[in-house]
Amino acid sequence: MNKTYINCNAKLKKQSGFTLLEVLVALALGVAILTATITMQIQHRKGFALTSNKLEMQTNAKFAFEFISQSLRSAGAMGCKNAKALAGGSTTLDNSCVGAVCLNLADPTIAYADFRPGQEVLGYQSLGTSLSPALSTTFPFVTNGDNNDNSDVLTVSGGYGEVYNVKPEYNIAVTDGGFELDLTGISQVRLINNQYGMLTSCKGAKIFQVVSTNAEIGAGTINWAGQLGTRSESVANGNEREFRRAAVVTYFVGQHPLGDTNGVPTLYQDVDGVSTRLIEGVEEIQLLYGYSDGASTDRNVANRYDTADNITDWSEVISVRVGLIMRSAQPVFETNQTQNISLACANGYTQSTKTDRFARSTYCADVTLRNRLTGTRVGEKVTI
After folding, report:
1. Domain enclosing residue 204, as ranges
2. Confidence bin at 381 (pLDDT 50/70/90)
3. What was the pLDDT predicted at 363?
4. E-assigned strands of the chain?
5. CA-to-CA distance for 257 and 267, rounded, in angstroms?
6. In sequence order, which residues have a C-beta less than 8 Å from that of residue 373 and are 6 or more positions away?
7. Is 242 a residue whose pLDDT tops 50?
8. Which of 57, 75, 309, 342 could make an SS bond with 125 (beta carbons 3.0 to 4.6 A apart)?
9. H helices of 169-299, where?
10. CA distances from 278 to 199, 336, 371 (A)
11. 378 in a domain, yes or no?
12. Which of 115, 117, 108, 103 is CA-nearest to residue 315?
């Protein structure tokens, strides 16, 4: 009988496991790969968070520029002429009439009830904890200390909102208490009692406080506080008369909620004393005002920019340079980071230093005041 001999050493070798060294090497490699994967994931999430916040800051800055630019481009809009042209070139106005413009306001000294030709755009330079020139104490957000330190303030006055036609057959006399709107095809009049209204034509413009009840306004009846003045014939008759709300729009930066030092910095729009939150993440707004100082032969080209506290004649301002410092909505850094923020477009801006975990970006834009351009304003001659 043949015997089969088995190599026990070979069998034992095939059944043996990993050595301790091999196990340690495998564990080390596994830990290294896992650590690298987790680290890459964390870095990816950080990068994604930073990129997302920067994209959000950029988008919010565009919206902020859109609001501010729209207001600036329509500053002083009064029908088919601007306020300065209707006032015969005068930039001063009392509570009566100048040229073909007449005011009849409850209190024309109040900033958000002031429609003076040449002052359709007014700026206020931040001096840290104060503004120059000083705002009227009737500004609600100033008396409440709601405007952020180091951030400028801008006010723009003129026509605001939708335009409504006056009934062509409706004659307006000085002694009348108001007039009626043609509401054909209009479902709602966006105006309420005690707001300001503007009655305009290509000959004149009247601004007054509306005293109609909300029900009367909804029916198209507009009554004014007092008489329009001695020049009401300039908008009395004809088919080119229009009515719209008149308002002073103010842009400022405050916290949300207002007054909360730990809140989110936000751009606010204040219309006639009522503030509305617009864009979150706007930490500062810095403004420069452009005008021609006489060295340039083109009146429509600003060759000098100054801060609000250096402007002596606001009627000469033809453009506004807007600089925004945007802050991320959420902290994106693990530890506090010191950032030196500067606006290249704002040569009057003092560099700001921020130390926290938020990311920041800066944006700039120039906005031309359409109603101030020589040659494009109806009724003003082009100088050759």
Report:
1. 51-372
2. very low
3. 92
4. 77-78, 81-82, 97-98, 101-104, 121-126, 131-132, 153-166, 178-182, 196-200, 205-209, 221-223, 242-256, 264-271, 274-280, 282-291, 304-306, 319-327, 337-341, 352-356, 360-368
5. 12
6. 300, 318
7. yes
8. 309
9. 214-218
10. 29, 28, 25
11. no
12. 117
CA distances from 344 to 10, 298, 306, 311, 341 (A): 79, 25, 14, 21, 10
**Count of structural domains, the chain:** 1
How many distinct helices (H) and strands (E) make up the chain?
Answer: 5, 20
Confidence of residue 152 (pLDDT cuts 50, 70, 90): very high
Domain-embedded: residue 321: yes
Place of tokens 């994209």: 55
Mean pLDDT of the chain: 79
12 is a domain residue:
no
Residue 292, phi then psi, degrees to nearest 5: -95, 120
Q: With respect to residue 28, please indicate whether it lies within any of the assigned structural domains.
A: no
pLDDT of residue 307: 92
Closest CA to 193 of 169, 222, 165, 166: 222
Helix extents (H) in 74-177: 83-86, 140-143
CA 199 to chain centroid: 26
Q: 183-212 pLDDT, tens per residue?
A: 998 889 999 998 888 888 877 777 888 889
